[in-house]
Amino acid sequence: MAADALEAPPTSILIRVGPEDFDAGLEYQGLRQRAPGHGALVLFTGLVRDQSPRGALQGMRLEHYPAMTGKCLQRIAEQAAGRWQLAAVTIIHRVGELAGDDQIVLVGGAAHHRQGAFDGAQFIMDYLKTEAPFWKQEIGVDGDAHWVEAKASDQQARERW
Q1: What is the spatial distance between Cα 22 and Cα 29, in angstroms, rounded to a whole number?
Q2: Tens digit of each residue's pLDDT (9 = 90 or more) over 114-131
């Protein structure tokens, strides 16, 4: 058997960043189609909370630097794919004005076994929270806005990898 025959096919990576909402069901089906024959798919969706330590929120504003964001998300997806042999990765992150309970992020991973899919998706989320160039501004119900600072708990979660 030739050495090439043992190599895994390249990972299918889908990354989208923009203001548009997404349909988690359609994204699941797309991930499934991009990873035929794999036994585990994990999908995580993050939502805008209605509360923060400062009080009730009406929403959030997310900004990013497009030239850096795409490269950073691609690097994170490739790291996860290589480490957990993910056949397919989906990362969707919204930017702009979002209201309470709106979807912010979707991360999906497909692998042969559940542990790889779970770990890969969790790694991606932990790295998104600490490495991706997104800036979040929470908007209180009174209209007062403040920038969200990095959390020590997010950094601790990332360090386990």
Answers
A1: 13
A2: 999 999 999 999 999 999
Q: What are phi and psi of 11, to 5 degrees?
A: -75, 140
With contact defined as beta carbons under 8 Å apart, do 91 and 82 qualify?
A: no
String of DSSP letters for the chain: --GGGGSPPPPEEEEEEES----HHHHHHHHHHTSTT-SEEEEEEEE--SEETTEEEEEEEEEE-HHHHHHHHHHHHHHHHHHHT-SEEEEEEE-EEEETT-EEEEEEEEESSHHHHHHHHHHHHHHHHHHS-EEEEEEETTS-EEEPPPPHHHHHHHHT-
pTM of structure:
0.89
Residue-wise pLDDT tens digits, 8-49: 567 899 999 999 999 999 999 999 999 999 999 999 999 998
Angle formed by the axes of helices 152-159 and 114-131, nearest 10°: 140
CB count within 10 Å of CB 87 equals 24
Whole-number percent of the chain with pLDDT over 90: 73
Give the separation between CA 64 and CA 74, rounded to whole angstroms: 15
